[in-house]
Design brief:
eight-stranded mixed sheet; single chain; alpha/beta
Length: 344
């Protein structure tokens, strides 16, 4: 009886908020849906993780990979696996010395073997992204793999110096620009190797709660993280269509690591270490889907797929909408002054 009364009271409060304080109402609905997604993902991890979240590593000694955000958390574990595949990795990080120290203290020197090249890159700063891409282009005529992994979560609202909301800039816009700038190198890499080059964009099931607001792309009214994750998923799906249309031997994938005990949650509601450790994946477990998307041979006929627990999973309806995805790509190109995506 008490439960029923509380439920009725809660419903009345929600109805009143909808009419009297619509902005607060939208935030509450967003948080409730986000909580549902967290629970749903955790259940999927518990059921599917032990059976499917596995990746087989194999030698790719001639391959060159570009990785953002590879000096800690999930990215560090991704880097370790790429090195176990004997790849050369160009690492885009905000602080080279801090990254070098973190990596050399975490990865055995026998794996490093001068295989890691450190370069400055802040995906929240478009001039930094352009400079990083330029240095990659100067080093390599072709590359075989681009992993867009750097990301932030639930930081206070702030605009970057380019005028973009911080999470949207770091998670999506910077990687969009980097992918555009390095597409000629990915195409050249596929021609040199005779194999398909790959792009992996780290995303999450939070994209189900996102909504692209073209009239408020900087998300001044709600938290931007879920919107940035949706933008990543939509970009990945449409990028596959662009690659096919242009005859580029390049395949993009989005990869959801699951909810992982990493530095990404430091500013979120899951900031408490004890809580995180009890309900989240380890960073090593989280890295598997990303690396699977990067190297698994069986994925070559499934470009544009969304990978979770090392197997294709479903995206939200918006990410599957051809018209909306194309609209986002053109909108972002216009934002960045790009006339022809992927072409110099």
């Amino acid at each position: 009886m008490i439960f029923v009364l509380l439920l009725i009271l809660f419903s009345i409060i929600i109805i009143l908020l909808k009419f009297l304080m619509p902005h607060i109402y939208q935030i509450i609905l967003f948080e409730l849906y986000s909580a549902y997604i967290c629970v749903d993902t955790k259940i999927k991890d518990a059921i599917d993780g032990p059976r499917f979240n596995k990746v087989s590593l194999y030698s790719q000694s001639s391959s060159i990979a570009v990785l953002t955000g590879g000096n800690r958390g999930i990215g560090l574990e991704v880097l370790k696996k790429l090195l176990q595949c004997e790849m050369t990795v160009i690492l885009g990080v905000r602080n080279i010395e801090a990254a070098r120290k973190s990596i050399e203290s975490s990865i055995d020197s026998s794996l490093l073997m001068n295989k890691v090249i450190y370069e400055n890159c802040d995906t929240g700063d478009m001039s930094s992204v352009r400079e990083f891409a330029k240095r990659v282009q100067e080093r390599c005529q072709g590359i075989n793999l681009l992993i867009n992994n750097a990301g932030i979560l639930e930081v206070p609202f702030k605009l970057t110096k380019d005028g973009f909301e911080t999470q949207m800039a770091v998670n999506y816009i910077g990687h969009f620009l980097l992918t555009h700038l390095l597409m000629p190198q990915l195409i050249a890499g596929s021609k040199e190797s005779g194999r398909i080059s790959r792009i992996v964009c780290t995303s999450s099931d939070s994209h189900f709660a996102g909504k692209i607001k073209f009239d408020d792309f900087n998300c001044t009214k709600v938290m931007a993280y879920c919107d940035s994750e949706l933008a990543i998923a939509m970009f990945t799906k449409h990028l596959h269509r662009v690659c096919m249309k242009n005859g580029w031997n390049v395949q993009p994938y989005a990869a959801h690591p699951g909810f992982v005990n990493s530095g990404l949650f430091a500013s979120s509601a899951l900031g408490f270490n004890s809580l995180r450790q009890s309900i989240l994946k380890t960073t090593e477990q989280g890295s598997r889907s990303i690396v699977y998307a990067a190297i698994a041979p069986e994925l070559e006929s499934n470009g544009g797929a969304y990978i979770f627990n090392c197997r294709p999973s479903k995206m939200c309806k918006t990410a599957m909408d051809v018209v909306e995805c194309r609209k986002l790509l053109l909108f972002t190109c216009d934002f960045l002054g790009i006339k022809n995506f992927g072409i110099k």
